[in-house]
Amino acid sequence: MLPALDPEEQRHSEAVAALVRAELATAGGWLSFERFMELVLYAPGLGYYSAGSRKLGRDGDFVTAPEMSELFGRCVAAQCAPVLRATGGEILELGAGTGSLAAAILAALDVQGVLPERYAILEVSADLAARQRARLDALPTHLRARVEWCERLPQAPLRGVILANEVADALPVRRFRLRGGAVHDLGVARASGDALQAAEGAPDAALAQVCAAMFGAPARSLPDGYTSEVNLRVGPWIATLGECLERGIMLLADYGLPRAHYYHAQRVAGTLRCHFRQRAHDDPFVNLGMQDISAWVDFTRVAEAASLAGLEVSGFATQAAFLLALGIERAVAAAPDVPSRARLAGEARRLVMPEEMGEAFKVMALTRGYEAPLGGFSLQDLRRQL
Ligand SMILES: C[S@@+](CC[C@H](N)C(=O)[O-])C[C@H]1O[C@@H](n2cnc3c(N)ncnc32)[C@H](O)[C@@H]1O
Questions:
Q1: What pTM, to 2 d.p., does this model score?
Q2: DSSP secondary structure string for all residues of 277-329
C-alpha cells in the first residue's frame, strides 16, 4: 500500500494525467513508454523532475549515495584529484540532485589543494537547480565562487572530470515484451475510465533492430512473455558527452549490470522501479508526476557507445569495490570523535554492503587522453563481463 496523495498532490497528478491523455488522443491512443516516461518525469512545470515535490532525501521519495553520506563525495574526490592534477581544468556534474555531491567534493579537494578551475552543474530540473543553489550558497566563499550552472553542455572542449550519479537511470527507456519469438513494443494506452495501462504495439525499426542484435530474430533465447527495458537514449547521451571531453575522465555511477546479467532469462519482468516516499514498487501508472521512475543501466550499452565515441572504458566495478579502493574505511577511522565515527561507520555500511547499495550500484570510468591507473578500480575489474 502506498501512502495517499494529499489534495494538492492529487490535483497536480491529475494535471499530469490529463497531459498524458491529451497526447494519447493526438497520437491515436498509444504512446511508447519512452514518451510516457519523458512526459511524467520532465514535462515543463508538471513532470516529477520539473515540478516542486521533495524527490531526494530522507523526507523525499528516495535517498541517493551522496544524500546518504558525505563519504561518497570524499571518495569520488579522491578519484578526481589525480586527474585534475594531470589535466587541470574543471568538473562538470550532470543532474546534481540537491548539491550534496558537489559540496562534499569541493570540500575534500580543497583539503587536498587541488580545486578545479570551476565546478559546473548541468541540471534539467529548475526545482533541483534552486535547491542546489540554496545548498551551495552555504559553502565558504572561495569554494562557492567556483560553482556555476550551465544551460547546456559546454561548447569549448573540457579538460578534467564529468560526473553523473544516478542520471543514466533517469533517462526515458523503451519497454518490450517477447512473445512467440516476436518483439512487442510495450507502450501505454488508456484502460477503463481515466486509468492508464501497458499496451503492446508494433516495434519501430530502432527497437526491432536493437532487440534482434541482442536476442536474435526470432528471439527464442528468452522465455515467452519476457518483459524488459532498453535505453535507446543512453548511446547518443554518451556520444554527446564524449564530444565535450577533450582530456580526462567521465565517472558514471548507477544501478546497473553488464548485458548478460541484465537480460538474464530469470529476470522476466525487467528492472523498472518507481519510488514514492521511500517505497519502491513497479507500477508506473499511479501517482503520475509525483513519483520517480527509473530503470537499471545496461553498462554494456554504455561501454559500446563509449567505444564508438573514441573513449576508453578504463574501469568498471561495484560501488563497494570503488569506495573501498578509495579509502572509505580510512575516512571513517579518521573521524574526530566516537559519535561521528559511529555515524560514519553506519553510513559506510549502507554504501558498501552487498544487500544495500554496494553491489547493485556500479561505477564506470570512461577516459580520453588519460592513461594513468585509476585508484578507484584497483580492487576489482569487472570489464571482462561487459
Ligand atoms: C536520481 S536524481 C540523482 C541526483 C544526484 N545525482 C544524486 O545522486 O543525488 C537524477 C538527476 O538527474 C537529473 N537529470 C535527468 N536527466 C538529465 C539530463 N539529461 N541531463 C542532466 N541531468 C539530468 C535530474 O533532474 C536529477 O537531478
A1: 0.96
A2: TTEEES-TTSSTTTSEEE--EEHHHHHHHHHHTT-EEEEEEEHHHHHHHTTHH
